[in-house]
Amino acid sequence: MNRLSPDGGGDDGNDGSESLASPLLLPQRSLINSTSQVALVGANVCPIESLDYEIAENDVFKQDWRSRGKKQMFQYLFMKWSLCFLVGLIVSLIGFFNNLAVENIAGLKFVVTSNMMLAGRFKMAFFVFSASNLVLTLFATLITAFIAPAAAGSGIPEVKAYLNGVDAPGILSLRTLFVKVVGSISAVSASLVVGKAGPMVHTGACVASLLGQGGSKKYGLTWKWLRFFKNDRDRRDLVTCGSAAGIAAAFRAPVGGVLFALEEMASWWRSALLWRSFFATAVVAIVLRALIDVCLSGKCGLFGKGGLIMFDVYSASITYHLTDVPSVLLLGVMGGILGSFYNFLLEKVLRMYNYINEKGTVYKILLACLISIFTSCLLFGVPWLGSCQPCPPDALEACPTIGRSGNYKKFQCSSGHYNDLASLIFNTNDDAIRNLFSRNTDSEFHASSVLVFFLICCVLSILSYGIVAPVGLFVPVIVTGASYGRFVGMLFGGRPHSSLNHGLYAVLGAASFLGGSMRMTVSLCVILLELTNNLLLLPLIMLVLLISKTVADAFNGNIYDLIMKAKGLPYLVAHTEPYMRQLTVADVLSGPLWTFHGVEKVGTIVHVLRITKHNGFPVVDECSQDDSRVLYGLILRAHLVELLKRKDGFMSTSAESRGGGVEFSAADFAKRGSGTRDTIDDLEISAEEMEMYVDLHPFTNASPYTVVETMSLAKALVLFRQLGLRHLLVIPKITNRSPVVGILTRHDFMPEHVLGLHPLLFRSRWKRLRLQVPRTFSIF
Amino acid sequence: MNRLSPDGGGDDGNDGSESLASPLLLPQRSLINSTSQVALVGANVCPIESLDYEIAENDVFKQDWRSRGKKQMFQYLFMKWSLCFLVGLIVSLIGFFNNLAVENIAGLKFVVTSNMMLAGRFKMAFFVFSASNLVLTLFATLITAFIAPAAAGSGIPEVKAYLNGVDAPGILSLRTLFVKVVGSISAVSASLVVGKAGPMVHTGACVASLLGQGGSKKYGLTWKWLRFFKNDRDRRDLVTCGSAAGIAAAFRAPVGGVLFALEEMASWWRSALLWRSFFATAVVAIVLRALIDVCLSGKCGLFGKGGLIMFDVYSASITYHLTDVPSVLLLGVMGGILGSFYNFLLEKVLRMYNYINEKGTVYKILLACLISIFTSCLLFGVPWLGSCQPCPPDALEACPTIGRSGNYKKFQCSSGHYNDLASLIFNTNDDAIRNLFSRNTDSEFHASSVLVFFLICCVLSILSYGIVAPVGLFVPVIVTGASYGRFVGMLFGGRPHSSLNHGLYAVLGAASFLGGSMRMTVSLCVILLELTNNLLLLPLIMLVLLISKTVADAFNGNIYDLIMKAKGLPYLVAHTEPYMRQLTVADVLSGPLWTFHGVEKVGTIVHVLRITKHNGFPVVDECSQDDSRVLYGLILRAHLVELLKRKDGFMSTSAESRGGGVEFSAADFAKRGSGTRDTIDDLEISAEEMEMYVDLHPFTNASPYTVVETMSLAKALVLFRQLGLRHLLVIPKITNRSPVVGILTRHDFMPEHVLGLHPLLFRSRWKRLRLQVPRTFSIF
């Protein structure tokens, strides 16, 4: 064991500090990296760790690789595609079941309430409505808080962080999956302004991860063919496919799903993955299509024109001309401003909720109940402000709608009249979106009703996202944006300004709000096209998305990045910050470095593993000839623990022949699933064994990626991020010093750490160009 | 100067060959890398070189970077987006002009010929038809052969190789652009079965590259703001946007264009690039939409329902059921087999043509003329075999069509009748596709006519692609696939087997053929959707694409990869071949390694640059204290040449202070445009200067990426490819040997080189799983 002092001099005493290119800021290396090793995962604070996409090329792995023949390659290939197929199949079934359940539960609730109102029993109706909402919300919150706190929220930030290499316990477990599905159904059915797309993405990721894990070792449910998937790399690919399938199932948008996974979720992407996620979403599309065929014959209860069916409202051709451009531009600019403001508010509310949630489970539940009651009051109360309108004589459906969850809501009006505000508010989100998107309804809604609806959606969606239940953000943003767009259309859209109808404005408004909040481009464009089923809209949607994203980017980041940051997830961005070019790798190295000898004493290993939390240790050999020290490679904590647990490799002296008679297979070192892992504290090692030696060479990754200490931080980040590393060894410029001077991990690249070490950079001109919201604006 | 012997021992004599982990196959390192440094670019064999996406972090660059303030960042940002906008604008204008010209020239030709046939002057009609085709083909061939041979072919393989890091002179020059546009128009107008999508991609790439280059230094037309784009990295991003814009303009498929660039063209991709290429294609979509609005009023001559307008034939809703699946599956499987066979034949024909083309320009021109005459004969002759059919009473357009390039061709028939074979064959490709895709025309064509058309398309498209003119492959594959699909639909599609109409079968056939030949998934899916404008087709198209690609992948690679391989372009694939895990980096190192000292004699540099063709040289410093040698970094040939040309840095002795008074700016080392570059042979250096010294430190990239010699080749390839490197330094395992043992370049990773060094691996079981076409099949 060697504890190298931070300046790399160590015990070789040959520092050569007047060397050609010694780093400038040596003294600061002794600081400990203080970035947080915990993050808010779902609702609770959990320890996090990094995933490792590098192949640990140790002797055991190499031996396993050499033994693989055609048969193993076929097994791998077969399983890869079978798992993709299963992911698509299961996710589409869950998605369908999810929609079916929501449509039936929420539909039943609205039918019962409407019938009571028809009978004039308004108080009773309100009681039933709010009580059922409260029960459903409470159920969702209780199962989330007590069974799987990791299932709270949309899950997209957590999955995105997972795909970036941040793992947290329980994030993709069976429990989380169960709570996510059931909780999402009850939260959406509870008439909260929350979405189901985010939970579907998380569901898809859970399904994929669980399938790849291949049963449970605890219950003996493992299958040999799945052994190739017991590593972070293959699991990452599966989870990417799963999240694509999630969006595909939520919106019935298979191509949009692939692009969403590509643009928003995945940090690493390659062509082969495109092809596999396309396969998974194709399965989703085909299965959903078949299931809907079954439902069209009316066997699915109230499941009718609900979520899964596209908002197929533009099958006729639409025309638009140059004169429409100014109002569309205005829509885009304002959508961008509103979207970024929405992000700003949402983040503040989330931080405030976090204080409340930290106080204990009771507070979490109380908060959720409060939101539910507030929502019920608004949904039931505000329509009373709306005026009754006479039914149009040429209405395509029964007006007012009686006995089902229709669009021309009667509410308090007399027969032959409908309440336009209730048609929007007292309805499921999906139906509200459909109403807003519909053509030939320019006279159906008052501008004031749409404005009120917009404000209610804004407030409720921002307040509802933070509760401890599986709730998404996609549908709320769409519905808010659609009402905003329709309102703008009503103000500016009439002739002679524009020939576009109000429904089209609603679609464009949804695009602008999505662009301003989520900041995706291609995937949003395709999802919206797949939702509305008209490609002629394409140029307009592209224009609006471009403008709103550009405007919003000037103010803040996209909503998922903001949430990830608020949650403390150490996300590694792809671009390098300008100041990173000014620093060398050595400028950010922190903490003492622990290294092992090639043949190391068991007691030393145990001691080091106990006193540090590092997950990788350089293995250094000493040449007997000239006392020089050579970097042999990098050994992982998990492998060391396995080695100590098995005890097969223990030798009485350090001089024994290495690896003699020790039989380890690659499977022993395979990455565990989501279950508990052995830690060093679980091991019992006798005092006698502590004095023995173990040969680390066969288990050491003999070719870790390395960088020279004088490399700029930006270049090292590119290497680290592009290759998906967990540890990056830093070697000295002058080769006759210690063979390794430090290890870089994800946390060393975090701006908080770097700017903490070098506070002068904080206000330097190398920061990104971004308009700052004035400080006085921070009202919370 | 040091010439290190291949085993890395060099002159330090401290080889340590009994070290812990010395490479296994040392002796083989002395072999020279014999992979070809030339490739077939367009029609001619040219030298190729690699692009360098690594930032050369030398002192000059660092100084320049530090001097950049907010203003420079704004300039860069502004230029980035302005250039994207300009690329979109110019490419859409070219695309529109291209279509306008083709529609008018080909339309005029068909009108004149038809009028002659109406007057009974059949021989004269044939003469005019074939003569105009011949003249147009000859024109296209002549300008290609004499002005810009690099413009021959579709250009997609060349651009794809460029984006992978392979540069060739003239591939993206102004000349190539001109010939590509004009030549493509005349080749397509000449009724050859060739496409314009490929040339549009190349055009887009040329436009992007030329814009990024920012005028010409020769004519003093440079702009300071463009200096940030004078490197391979920013130019690569622009070219990616350009190729996306090309597809967007060719098919009016903006989202498809982005996805095509992402899936097929780009080797490096990141989210920011998605966003920029989306911007470029959005500009294309909006500009095209506006231009078509102008043309709808009839001001564009014969430009009517031609190429740029979508094949908008499915605006009504379509239904399909589970019973349709078997015939669709069959279509997909057969499409995959036919597609891969198509690839196989095309590659053989290309190789054969290559022999002919190599014999001289006259042979090239003769070949093109022959193809043109053959095409004219077939197009004019075969319709005579078709029978005349009575016009349907409910035809939507005039039947037979008189006086314009319509669909119900009269040809030799009497009035009131039309020739269905002529409607397909004696027409532009775009119109033929529209006919095949159309609904409600199940009785318009005989099965035999469609079969004949399919065979003719197959033969002609395979024969036409190899001629020396700018010709694409996309449209021929679509038209071939559509006729194949329609034929299958006629055989199996009728009730009770299937409820799909023949036009829908044609769309699915085109999908299956595209999937079988081009092997893209998401992008083809979106392009087809954007072409046919109906999203309800999505599940079926996805199914067909999945099946045909899977089937075809079992036989051979995608068509562009086959062509790239036939052309000898050293494309670096993303996946690692299994045998690469068995080799270490040291196993493939080849040739002698040349290094420079930190302060080097001018004469030595000149000598080394003259006798080698390497483009990067390690710079090694010698510590005066203990005689050890330290790797300082890597210097590029281009920078050395610039240094020798300027002569500012020359010093009379080696002991002078380094960099004193030498004023170089980063702009001096910026990458030149497509013009001629200085080579070492152009420099005149006096004998006196030869004896002087130059300090290389300020110009050396002090932190090149390095790997240890024992790293597996697969891992090194991942690093090399992911970071887009040109040179990868190999450092020794044992640090007290020479500080660098070799340099890996693109060619060292080529399978030919690796398998040439280690022929035993060739037949090993670690090769990819792929069905082999029996050897007897290779008829050529």
TrEMBL record, chains A, B:
InterPro entries named in the record: CBS_dom, CBS_dom_sf, Cl-channel/antiporter, Cl-channel_core, Cl_channel_pln, ClC
Stretches assigned to the CBS domain: 699-760
Entry keywords, A to Z: CBS domain, Chloride, Chloride channel, Ion channel, Ion transport, Membrane, Repeat, Transmembrane, Transmembrane helix, Transport, Voltage-gated channel
Keyword ATP-binding applies: no
Any one GO MF annotation of this record: voltage-gated chloride channel activity
Keyword Ion transport assigned: yes
GO cellular component labels: chloride channel complex; plant-type vacuole membrane
Residues that span the membrane, as ranges: 76-97, 124-148, 238-261, 273-291, 303-322, 328-345, 365-386, 451-484, 504-529, 535-555
Protein localization: Membrane
Membrane topology label: Multi-pass membrane protein
Superkingdom of source: Eukaryota
Gene3D superfamilies tied to this protein: CBS-domain (3.10.580.10), Clc chloride channel (1.10.3080.10)
Family membership: Belongs to the chloride channel (TC 2.A.49) family.
PANTHER family: CHLORIDE CHANNEL PROTEIN CLC FAMILY MEMBER, CHLORIDE CHANNEL-LIKE PROTEIN CLC-G-RELATED
Name by which UniProt lists this protein: Chloride channel protein
Organism: Linum tenue
